[in-house]
From TrEMBL:
GO terms for molecular function: endonuclease activity; hydrolase activity; mRNA binding. It comes from Turneriella parva (strain ATCC BAA-1111 / DSM 21527 / NCTC 11395 / H). Keywords: Endonuclease, Hydrolase, Nuclease, RNA-binding, Stress response, Toxin-antitoxin system. The keyword Hydrolase applies. InterPro entries: HicA_mRNA_interferase (IPR012933), HicA_sf (IPR038570). Belongs to the HicA mRNA interferase family. This is YcfA family protein. It comes from the Bacteria.
């Protein structure tokens, strides 16, 4: 069963990412140790798509241990 969008957002926020807003259902997350922006789209209760889970995992791996 796929994870929910709210779970991906919680993982990002726990790792030190900040939501800088976005348009519509899109939310952009930034981290001081990373120049890339992680964009998550969809409502909190929606199932996360595979590419969203992959993007979050990659971002968390890149910032591991840095807050």
């Amino acid at each position: 069963m796929p994870r929910k969008i709210r779970e991906l957002i919680a993982d990002l926020e726990r790792a030190g990412f900040k939501d800088r807003g976005g348009k519509g259902s899109h939310r952009n997350f930034t981290h001081p140790a990373m120049q890339q922006i992680v964009t998550i789209s969809g409502k909190n209760g929606d199932d996360a798509l595979p590419y969203q889970e992959k993007a979050v995992k990659k971002a968390l791996d890149l910032t591991k241990g840095q807050k």
